[in-house]
Amino acid sequence: MFYREAGDFKTSYTDDSQTFPIKFDRYRYYAVLVAAFAVVPLVIDDYWVNAVFLPFLIYAIAAIGLNILVGYCGQVSLGTGGFMAVGAYAVYKLMTSFPEVSIFFHVILAGGITAAVCVLFGLPSLRIKGFYLAVATLAAQFFLVWLFNRVPWFYNYSASGQISAPERTIAGVPITGAETAPWAAYLFCLVFVTASALIARNLTRGMAGRKWMAIRDMDIAAEIIGVNPLKAKLSAFAVSGFFVGISGALFFAVYLGAVEVGEAFGINKSFLVLFMVIIGGLGSIFGSFAGAAFLVLLPVLLKNTLVGTLGWPTDLAAHLELMIVGSLIIVFLVAEPHGLAQLWRVAKEKLRLWPFPH
Amino acid sequence: MPDQLIFAMEVFLNGLMAGVLYALVALGFVLIFKASGIFNFAQGVLALFAALTLVGIMDGQVPFSHLINAVFGTDIHHFGWHVPALAAILLTMVVMVALAWAVNHFIFRHLVGQEPIILFMATIGLAYFLEGFGDIMWGADIKKLDVGLPQGINTVIDEVTYGIFGYGFFIDNLDLWATFVAALLVIALVIFAQYSKHGRAMRAVADDHQAALSVGVSLNFIWVMVWSLAGFVALVAGIMWGTKSGVQFSLSLIALKALPVLMLGGFTSIPGAIVGGLIIGVGEKLFEFAIGPMVGGATENWFAYVLALLFLVFRPQGLFGEKIIERV
Known about the structure:
The complex is a heterodimer. Chain A is an all-alpha fold. Chain A is built from 15 helices and four strands. Chain A has a domain at 51-267. In chain A, 72% of the residues lie in helices and 2% in strands. In chain A, strands 1-4 form a two-stranded antiparallel ribbon. Chain A has a two-stranded antiparallel sheet with strand order 2-3.
């Protein structure tokens, strides 16, 4: 009824190739942006920010990053946790070494450093692929976590071996540290999420994205039609590392504030982000958001119903959550390998015809 | 002979023993990968689940007692009987076969013809599910497993080496047993695969699904059989590791250690799993012994991966793997 392209005439090529070609979609997107930037910060409190919004936004960036690597370029990585740790430690070192520079640039620089590290560990992808590569990325996961644990320079020789974010402000408003207002942390992350999604979306539908997808679908064939596998694979690792690094930096500096590397960036983090990508939808930016939202909300929901309402012990609820997440992965792989994003696409196709499908 | 060298020899021997245990887990991977092309990430959790079930049956725990207690407010935990080890192992095997059937029936039957990487992710999902399931079924506390295997220092080796070097080597009896069992297991598996009817069918399926189907091999049966075999190997690995360090969550992490073993040995080779396991076991122990103190220790966490990674750059199919030939 509302969701129609009829009557929406495109008069230029730019109009024709925009991200949201259908008017309703476009307005919905603007509405979501306005709500996220102008309405949500006014109404949220501490609990909502820390339990839902911050993890959602930060994981969404990580999921976008991993989706570029796994979903678009087909290089399965199990090292996301390690790369997030690189972002976190990079931003920590930058924050403490150059306190006069704005944290905004620190986060972006941390992304750049992570991109470099990610490319380094992506080098084997030129020789090996599939499972071999997936297992090889585990080397990054374990080595990086060990490195940050054992080399005191990374945590500034602090006695506990932890890193904790000092207070930094933007325009007088604290963004990190204990004094941070919920809305400030939220807005800071939101800016990065919006920018990441925009960049990722435009990269993936441009030449870079088409090269990645060619490599994903069949690398030998891609090479024959003139895609340089070296550049395509390493650029995917770099872009992915950039986003993952930013999310790691935000995860440490804005969300947690203090981090112990093995606990916060262990192998489970790698799997969590991978699950977000699978459940949300491989090869879809919207899917990264959907997957992140799903896996952030699910534990909160389960905890509230099982522990809060039914009064079960927490460990039992945690085990049940593992079972549910595991079976959801399997159900999605069996029933809908393209994830929530595909459900959304099908729903939109149906909506275009609704209410007169014939 | 200098002390350092003698210590290094002891470390070397202990590394060999540890390598055997890695190889045990890696064997399960190779079995499933050869027969169905599935890279089974859940192998470690399978070992954990098998060990949990074994302990639960031996101690007469009530399955799902935590869940029942939480829902109905009751307070049950044990039946109050003890099952002898051998009977418990047999019962656990029945559970593992049932699990193999369920895994095939509910998951992998529906994923036939999917890309290998999708199957791999499905096994990650399975690993998560089993981890939660095992904990809900038997409880998450650390359990002691004792099926009557000898433990502690082997006095014969201690005395003999003391006589030769003037320093007694510390070799655990359990490790010797594990080596023995692993050797038996490999011989049995090879004989089964080469000479039995089902073994031949299994190799046919591994070679070509459709061709095997066309000559009347039942894919479903073979897959259930292979998963049961993997369950059996997991049970053996679970007993060994469980006796060594208690049945607890960290048991499932040995699967992660088995991955570099596989990469080194090649995914499709049973001897590769053994040799890879030994190289990794010895390599990481010696590296920790020689280089570890200089860089802060705990290098065992990553050494195996980095070794495998470097190795793969030069030989992508591993030591004994089949040559990877790609066609468009």
